[in-house]
Write a structure and sequence with these properties.
The chain has four helices and no strands. It is mostly helical.
């Protein structure tokens, strides 16, 4: 898997999890302190997110951090 691919796939997974919880990017930003523009760029596969921010997001979403890397659950129509 190329670096570009993993960023895009991770971004798709993050967006999926955020939407499953019924949260907007703005709500996630307010809860984690991560800027909305940064979150948007991560979701689009532009930014390379740090493990610290992945932890913040998983904690806020109340999911195991490993669930963020469960790429098999990505809606295949979006990939």
């Amino acid at each position: 898997m190329k670096e570009f691919d993993i960023k895009v796939i991770f971004g798709l997974r993050l967006r999926q999890l955020r939407k499953e919880k019924g949260l907007s990017q703005e709500q996630l930003m307010m809860s984690t302190g991560i800027h909305r523009t940064y979150l948007s760029e991560v979701e689009r596969g532009i930014r390379n997110i740090s493990i610290v921010n992945i932890y913040k997001i998983s904690s806020m979403l109340d999911i195991d951090i490993m669930e963020m890397f469960n790429f098999k659950k990505i809606d295949q129509e979006r990939v």
